[in-house]
Design goal:
Length: 397
């Protein structure tokens, strides 16, 4: 009973704290909608704002209760939910950091099957939720939450809500002067503004470094059978990628640098991608080695290189992350002989737009020997016209 009173105390604090955040993320309606029988699991990188979303839901939803699993002693989730539902008439249980509760997957199944209470839960151990969703089957709808898009960063930092743009609109110069107005925020966005906690925390990279350590030495080992030695190798993998130019970083180059098999390198890269540290993009083209190109999630690269020294890589990191946030179909381009090609191709039902990412000196010559109908250069520059479009506009997609 004493522990339950502590739960109520923390829940009241969380509900009041939710009032401090009146502005909602774009994904909020997809998470807070509690219609239907299924539970909702929120998956995403550390620092993406999952806890704040739960507190906002608690603040706005009657008969709900916020439970932070890492702030209380071990409890039986099923028995706690049963007591809260039957005695205290709680209809929605919001469980933050659910991975701290032992056998939470079995408890969720049991709650779903036998109790009349809904659950929305999060975990910073994103890998754990990916593995669990297969076992939980129809009972859980998994929602991915990413850090801020550039559009959201403008909204949260300047209180300016702008319309989304499609890739076609950018290609056809279909943006407004308001979209262009906030291009000056691009540098602070890619340096850490992408992370929601940047709005309150001055030293982003220190917190990011701490997050990465937890991912490598705590999160990944908790859901995969790897040794401490392998954890160190995963750390070296991230460091190698962070300190290297973008071109040529793939499973083979990682394996060669670390002195491990290509299979082992691929398994490490997949774990890091599921942990939202890396992004892997596969190539389009005939007679090419179907090996993914490896980029980093923003702003991890800045833990290993100064901004000015890795600006080209940062630009590609930004483009890829923006595409993945919106689940758009795209590939990187390569030839079977390693000849120069543009960087990416964005595909869809009625489009194939070839894209080159670059600075102010990129021009038509980037498409030499490459046949395509629609081409676009996304430039990190104030000088744009014709096929040259501002790179930061992709953040409004």
């Amino acid at each position: 009973m004493e522990q339950l009173q502590h739960v109520f105390e923390l829940a009241d604090i969380a509900r009041k704290d939710g009032a401090r955040y009146p502005i909602k993320r774009e994904i909020f309606p997809h998470v807070s909608d509690v219609k239907g029988r299924h539970f909702t699991g929120i998956v995403g990188p550390r620092g993406a704002g999952k806890t704040i979303i739960l507190k906002q839901i608690s603040h706005e939803t009657a008969n709900s209760l916020y439970l932070s699993a890492d702030s209380i002693e071990e409890i039986d989730l099923f028995e706690t939910a049963k007591l809260l539902s039957e005695k205290y008439k709680v209809e929605l249980l919001l469980v933050d950091e659910i991975h701290f509760l032992r056998n939470y997957q079995a408890s969720l199944k049991k709650i779903y099957d036998f109790l009349n209470i809904k659950i929305i839960f999060t975990s910073s151990v994103s890998l754990s939720l990916y593995e669990s969703v297969h076992d939980l089957s129809r009972r859980v709808n998994l929602v991915t939450i990413y850090p801020f898009s550039f559009k959201e960063y403008v909204y949260f930092s300047k209180k300016q809500k702008l319309e989304s743009l499609s890739v076609e609109q950018i290609y056809n110069d279909g943006w407004s002067s308001e979209h262009l107005k906030y291009g000056y925020l691009f540098e602070e966005y890619v340096k850490g503004g992408i992370l929601p906690y940047s709005l309150e925390e001055p030293d982003i990279l220190a917190l990011l470094r701490n997050n990465l350590e937890k991912i490598i030495y705590k999160d990944i080992p908790s859901v995969s059978k790897i040794t401490m030695e392998e954890s160190h190798l995963i750390g070296k993998t991230v460091k190698f990628i962070g300190r290297s130019p973008v071109d040529g970083i793939n499973c083979s180059s990682v394996a060669g640098n670390l002195g491990i098999t290509k299979y082992k390198a691929e398994s490490y890269l997949k774990l890091l991608e599921k942990a939202f540290v890396l992004n892997m993009i596969f190539p389009e083209g005939t007679n090419v080695l179907k090996e993914p190109k490896v980029l980093m999630c923003l702003p991890y690269r800045l833990l290993y290189s100064e901004y000015e020294n890795c600006l080209g890589a940062i630009r590609e990191d930004f483009f890829v992350e923006s595409m993945k946030m919106r689940k758009l179909e795209f590939s990187y381009l390569k030839t079977n002989r390693g000849a120069k090609t543009p960087d990416f191709i964005v595909t869809g039902k009625d489009r194939r737009i070839v894209i080159e990412i670059g600075g102010k000196n990129k021009g038509h010559e980037q498409f030499k020997n490459f046949s395509c109908e629609q081409r676009m250069i996304l430039v990190h520059s104030d000088s744009f016209s014709g096929i040259r479009k501002p790179l930061f506009l992709i953040g409004y997609v």
